[in-house]
UniProtKB/TrEMBL annotation:
Keywords: Membrane, Transmembrane, Transmembrane helix. Pfam families: GntP_permease. InterPro entries: Glcn_transporter. The chain crosses the membrane at residues 7-37, 57-75, 96-119, 139-168, 175-198, 238-258, 270-292, 312-335, 347-379, 391-418, 430-454. This is H+/gluconate symporter. The keyword Zinc does not apply. One of its GO terms (cellular component) is plasma membrane. It comes from the Bacteria. One of its GO terms (molecular function) is gluconate transmembrane transporter activity.
Length: 455
């Protein structure tokens, strides 16, 4: 019954938000309360799961969100994103979504997905008119979504990729050799297909953007854009103004790569921690703007950033609460009992089964990494008897684990608020793009099975 009650809770939350226009925080909390009580967690257990899930998510991403949003506000006040977009518009123009999807999936998979979306969202909002005045932001949102999660599950050292490879006992080099081309191809093909759907009337500005946000030139406009530019800082070279983003990315990536190579140390691990790295980026951004503005000007920039941060933290935390209540319901154990790998199944069916298990687990639990890890835990004991190269089954799990990231994921709410999308808009971008990516990557995994069998 956990599956039925979870489905009712998720669907009810979506209907409350979209059809009845109930605030997402209230809708998600109602879903949490229903699910906790319906699955016999009791009043105390339900409250414990709600508060515990909120606190756990805040411990993981609270500072990342706060630091990232403030960095974005400070960089915007220096005209950094405006100047970067002008350069990108001249160099790649309408191909920017493809460039973003490719970059996020191949160059930055070592960066936490929460950091990726926090740092990429401001540039997407700023560059939307240069890409397409009508569909620029939703197209970039879809490209961001599939780029981030293709890298996360297919490309080492993405967290899910490393976890899947480890559980399936697949060497990281082997996983990367197969996963990198699959991840890149999935990101690019999905970005193209998503643009086709947008051209068929998928998007509606009136319902798919946050209605509290004013649109200007096809992109959201909020109070952070009313802060005067820091005139002297604007004259700094663009590369210097990008240091608050580049320094954290380099620190986090270096620490992740050295950790995989067993060459890390305490100093590298400390500086490469995402929270410390982003705080260093915030200090750099603050120093640049403080040098160029009076203290009142800096205060206005930070106040606007704090206003945005509070909203994101609350809805993200409640999204984590729903995920915790679902986990406490015993959903993972129920699904594990429902599925078992058949050692005599053909290769094609073994791949489909692995994909399906990961997809169902992710859809139910709300975490790509937890869905993938749970699926790998179910399948790994019998993978040796399937007659399929373990790397192929690992890639099938990665493919399925991307499927339909939706309202029971805290990332969904981060994505929604950072890009000023309504719940419906996020379902049309993040959920649809990850679902397309899961479907697009499946035949690529089947192709990989032929290559693996021939080698």
């Amino acid at each position: 019954m956990e599956i039925v009650h979870s489905a009712i809770a998720i669907l009810a939350a979506i209907l409350l938000i979209i059809a009845l226009k109930v605030d997402p925080v209230i809708s998600l909390l109602l879903a949490c309360v229903y699910l906790g009580l319906a699955t016999s967690q009791g009043a105390e257990g339900t409250v414990s799961a709600i508060t515990g899930g909120f606190g756990e998510i805040m411990a993981e991403v609270g500072l990342l969100i706060g630091f990232g949003v403030l960095i974005g506000a400070l960089l915007h006040s220096m005209g950094t994103f405006r100047d970067l977009v002008e350069i990108l518009a001249r160099r790649v123009g309408r191909r920017l979504p493809y460039a973003m999807a490719a970059t996020l999936s191949t160059i930055f998979p070592s960066i936490y997905v929460d950091v990726q979306v926090v740092l990429a969202a401001p540039m997407a909002k700023e560059s939307a008119p240069a890409v397409d005045r009508k569909h620029g932001l939703p197209w970039l949102a879809g490209a961001m979504a599939i780029g981030i999660f293709s890298g996360y599950v297919f490309v080492v050292p993405g967290l899910a990729a490393v976890a899947i490879a480890g559980l399936m006992d697949v060497p990281l080099g082997t996983y990367l050799m197969y996963g990198l081309p699959i991840g890149l191809t999935t990101a690019l093909v999905t970005t193209f297909l998503f643009r086709v759907l947008l051209g068929r009337g998928l998007w509606n500005d009136e319902t798919d953007y946050d209605q509290d946000v004013v649109l200007e030139d096809g992109r959201p406009h909020d109070e952070t854009e009313d802060v005067p530019l820091a005139e002297r800082a604007v004259r700094l070279p663009l590369l210097v103004r990008l240091l608050p983003i580049l320094v954290p990315l380099v620190l986090i990536a270096t620490a992740a790569i050295l950790d995989v190579a067993d060459a890390s140390n305490d100093v590298i691990a400390f500086l490469g921690d995402a929270n410390i790295a982003l705080f260093l980026g915030l200090l750099i951004a603050f120093a640049m703007v403080r040098f160029s503005m009076e203290s009142d000007g800096v205060g206005k920039v930070l106040t606007a950033g704090f206003h945005t941060t509070g909203e994101i933290l609350l809805v993200t935390g409640v999204g984590g609460s729903l995920g915790a209540v679902i986990a406490a319901s015993g959903m993972d154990a129920t699904l594990e009992d429902l599925f078992s790998a058949d050692a005599n199944a053909p290769v094609f069916l073994s791949i489909l089964l692995a994909w399906f298990i990961a997809a169902v687990l992710h859809f139910a639990i709300g975490s790509v990494s937890v869905g993938a890890i749970t699926a790998a835990g179910i399948i790994s004991p019998v993978v040796g008897s399937l007659g399929v190269d373990p790397v192929v089954i690992a890639l099938a799990i990665a493919s399925g684990a991307m499927f339909a990231l939706h309202v029971n994921s805290n990332f969904f709410w981060m994505f929604s608020t950072l890009l000023d999308l309504s719940t419906k808009g996020s379902l049309k971008t993040l959920t649809l793009a990850t679902s397309l990516g899961a479907v697009v990557s499946l035949p690529l995994v089947l192709l990989a099975s032929l290559v693996a069998a021939a080698t």
